[in-house]
Design a protein that fits this description.
There is one protein chain. By secondary structure, the protein is mostly helical. It has one domain. The protein contains 13 helices and no strands.
Length: 256
Amino acid sequence: MFNRQKDMVKPGILFLALALTLGLAAQEEKRLPPKLDPAAAQLVFDSGRFQSRISGPKGIGVLASDLSLYGMGGQAMGFAAKSEEAKTFLIGSFYSECIAYVRGGKPELALDRLKAIEKEFITMGVTNSVYGFVSKIENAITTKKYEPAVLLDFFALFQPVYEEFLKSKGQDRLTLFQAGSWLMDMGLAAAAQDKTLLKQPQVLNYFIAEMKRMDAPKGVQDSLAEISAISAKKEIADRDAAQVLKLIKKIQSVLG
């Protein structure tokens, strides 16, 4: 376990130290999934930025609770008796869920998910930099030293760090983490009836191609195809958003 920081550190210094320690220079280039066509190569997944654009009548923390997969796998809070692939998908989902809880004023729920991820990382044997990052995020929330906006900037750095680690484990694992995170974000947008954000043709094409390559269950591929058809509509109706949410939950139940 890493030691918890007791002294107050200015946010700018904290982020600079993390960037130097974790080698995040030129990270935007490193975050691109390998061996993609030029159109897909423009994709950079950023859960925090996506969620910042969601608008709706309900708070995002409430929406995240409704979509959560946490606690659906027994004693390990979603990780019990899961394959490495399913665990990677769940980590992506829990990560985006944590961001929603910090943004929605429910830090205690974010901490629950972080502790579950931290425990699973020990079992998975992740690198010290990945484990240490989660530990530092957990510490930053627990000590309540930083405003939510600062914590969200901190959180955003985890996604590229973990994606770099997953590249060493193969494209499938990287795709599953990205899918878990993105589906949670899309589910939040659908639940909020934010129809503008449901128009994600480029990302959908990427996941449709990846799930086909991975020979994902037919239900997953068919659900993505239906979401893509809805996304392509000129006008997305309320019932369409509700159907997207239903399809996302179906995919989550299969992959997680």
